[in-house]
Design a protein that fits this description.
The protein has 18 helices and 13 strands. It is of the alpha/beta class and 511 residues long. Keywords: Lipid biosynthesis, Lipid metabolism, Membrane, NADP, Oxidoreductase, Transmembrane, Transmembrane helix.
């Protein structure tokens, strides 16, 4: 597998994203690729070169910088934008790519579940159409990996490693033409009708992207990788690395901050989490296997699909994730935590709404009132509103369950040599969830909040203070409720005794 990537030129989209960065890190550290062409756009006042330099100077690439001090020479930024026609690539850069590229990894996408439909179509469908067109011009192309999602067909309870074009009410090409003709506003207004049973624009457009590959890939050596929810690194290059608040990571972060106290969740449902480094490893394995199959098979068949989910023999429930996440949030506190981390798991939406109003909304208004009195900028109500919107989007995924066929993924793993399995590990049956959740909490503290050993003492001291306030408040509430119950009970008994004696007296006088 390593020999396959030796002296190869790889073109990657989405390289500045969470998964994309780890793929690049793995390519640089584990293989001897000749060059990585990274599609990247200038952002604000920062050039593509400056953005790339900043990415490579981050903690994720620390080991690579030690092994390959010349790593900057191994990556060539390609100015472009997935929202533009032909990816916004200049004719000169396009000629370089079509002449030299051996492997394509398309991981660019918008992962915002509530992205306006027009934007989601352009980014998740229009971009893959442009990449397919570019790949067809590549004279040296040996392998193409498209990163999709295991939720692309989430309206089905069981999802095999195959295409499901019949569940979409419109083809990808028709959807793109419609968006081009109608424009953003009208397209977005039609979202509800077009989505059908799909819960959001992300899953819908990912399904369209797969349909586009089925109809337009032609003879390209292409495969599709479908992961579930991607979370922090399991082991490589360091445990717990993360750089975003998406999905389950955002919920764990909010719990650690003390702002998430009520969670609508079906605790017994299996959580579908996979480490990002495992994803990078299997993507490289997919690229290798696709090139092998292209050399062996004489007749072109449908692109192979790889579902990547937790192993049936080693699953963990959402309830356990929530409990362990809260426990480890207390183990690795933040120095700016708002409240002592605790979490109430609720099985019904109505009760969750009531408790969220009591434990999220009301406290946020009270905190903003205190901030206003201190002359500081209010922010808690807005934070609470954003948090509730985020949780609403996640509800579909943490209250439903799916099963997935994984024959291709298992065969891929078994086809690797022991050395390859060790170097490119993606064996989900060997994941220690307890340790992994510990590492996730540590990574949130170290890489997202950027606490260090110097601020740890401050964070723990603050947590102890918040714990005292939290427990004192609970004691006051329990005492108050006890007194209320005692008072009401005493009053009722007193009234009953009074009424009994009163009517008894009346009866005596009546006689």
């Amino acid at each position: 597998m390593q020999s396959f990537y030796e002296n190869k030129r790889v073109f990657i989209t989405g390289g500045s994203g969470f998964l994309g960065r780890v793929i690049i890190e793995h390519l640089l550290r584990k293989t001897e690729v000749k060059c990585i062409y990274m599609l990247i756009r200038p952002k604000h006042d920062t050039t593509s070169e400056e953005r790339l330099k900043k990415i490579l100077s981050g903690p994720l690439f620390a080991k690579v910088r030690e092994l390959k001090p010349q790593l900057h020479t191994l990556i060539t930024p390609i100015n472009g934008d997935c929202t533009q026609p032909n990816l916004g690539i200049s004719p000169e850069d396009r000629e370089v790519l079509t002449t030299y590229v051996d492997i394509v990894i398309h991981s660019a996408a918008t992962i915002r579940f509530n992205e306006p439909l027009y934007n989601a179509l352009i980014l998740n469908v229009g971009a893959i159409k442009s990449v397919l067109a570019l790949a067809k011009e590549m004279s040296q192309l040996k392998s193409f990996v498209h990163v999709s999602t295991a939720y692309s067909n989430c309206i089905l309870p069981h999802i095999e490693e195959k295409f499901y074009p019949e569940i979409i009410g419109i083809t990808a090409n028709k959807a793109l033409k419609m968006a081009e003709y109608l424009g953003p506003e009208l397209t977005n207004n039609l979202a509800k009708d077009l989505l059908g049973n799909f819960p959001n624009t992300y899953t819908f457009t990912k399904a369209l992207a797969e349909e586009l590959i089925l109809t337009e890939a032609g003879t390209l050596p292409i495969c599709i990788f479908r992961p579930v929810i991607i979370t922090s690194t399991y082991a490589e290059p360091t445990p717990g690395w993360v750089d975003n608040y998406a999905g389950a990571t955002g919920a764990l972060y909010a719990t650690a901050q003390g702002t998430l106290r009520v969670l609508y969740i079906h605790s017994n449902k299996p959580s579908l989490l996979v480490p990002v480094d495992f994803c990078a490893n299997i993507i490289l394995a997919c690229g290798y296997k696709t090139a092998q199959q292209e050399m062996i098979e004489k007749e072109k068949s449908e692109p192979v699909i790889y579902n990547f989910v937790p192993d049936e023999s080693n699953k963990i429930t959402w309830g356990t994730v929530a409990d362990k996440g809260t426990h480890y949030a207390r183990k690795y506190p933040f120095s700016n935590t708002f409240w002592y981390p605790f979490l109430l798991k609720v099985q019904t939406q109505r009760l969750a709404t009531i408790l969220a109003f009591l434990l999220h909304t009301i406290p946020s208004y009270m905190q903003d009132m205190l901030l206003r009195l201190r002359g500081e900028k209010t922010r808690m109500v807005l934070l609470c509103q954003k948090q509730e919107q985020f949780l609403q989007v996640l509800n579909y995924f943490k209250t439903n369950a799916w099963t997935h066929g994984t024959t291709n993924t298992k065969n891929l793993w078994q086809s690797l040599t022991p050395a390859e399995q060790s170097n490119f590990n993606f064996n989900m049956s060997g994941v220690c969830w307890k340790q992994y959740l510990d590492d996730i909490a540590f990574g949130l503290q170290r890489y997202l909040v950027r606490e260090d050993d110097a601020t740890m003492l401050k964070a723990k001291k603050r947590l102890r203070k918040l714990q005292f306030i939290h427990q004192s408040l609970l004691a006051l509430i329990v005492t108050g409720l006890t007194l209320l119950v005692f008072t009401v009970t005493f009053y009722c008994l007193e009234q009953r005794y009074f009424n009994t004696n009163y009517f008894s007296t009346i009866k005596i006088f009546a006689k």
